[in-house]
Amino acid sequence: MRRLTLSRVDGTVFDITAFTFKLLANTGGAGASLEIMPLVGGEDAFSDPLYFDATGYYGSTFSYNTSPNYLGSTALLTGYDTYKISLYVDFAFTSLTLEGAPVPTPEPSSLGLLGLVGGGLIARRIARRPN
Fold it and tell me: What are the sequence ranges of the domains in the chain?
């Protein structure tokens, strides 16, 4: 089982409104579903995960969004702080649309050279203050 967990570092809730993934193995013979379980505070949101059809062959791509679709819809993937995603074969997201709290703007910084030690470089991050 291949598993991926999506969450924000700050723990804020967010939505998965659309995604596309590609199969990196064959599921055509047995059939497959990508399973997504939303969580809040570490607890499963539903008794069963949400299923998205993933039956195909190596290289097949699947796209889902909030539109009603018997193969899967992201309409219920709103307002959770974590999403556990799994499939029994390798897969790769090729696009992922997330919405929710704005992402904080990182503080501008630069890299300062401290010196050379034994053929290696020592560097540190130097925060810059706004003018």
Answer: 2-100
Cα distance between residue 43 and residue 72, in whole Å: 22
What are 111's strand-pairing partners? 125
Whether residue 60 contacts residue 52, with contact meaning beta carbons closer than 8 Å, is answered with: no
Q: 95 near 21, Cβ under 8 Å?
A: no
What tens digit of pLDDT does each residue of 3-44 get? Answer: 999 998 888 999 999 999 999 999 999 999 999 999 999 999
Tell me which residue has tokens 């570092």.
Answer: 9
Cα separation, 35 vs 4, in Å, equals 10
Per-residue pLDDT of 52-71, as tens digits, reads: 999 999 999 999 999 999 99
d(CA 8, CA 14) in angstroms, rounded, equals 8
Query: How far is residue 64 CA from its own chain's centroid?
Result: 14
Residues of the chain by 3-state class (helix, strand, coil), percent to 5: 0, 50, 45
pLDDT in the model for residue 62 = 97
What pLDDT score was predicted for residue 35?
A: 98
- Could you name the CATH architecture of 2-100? Sandwich (2.60)
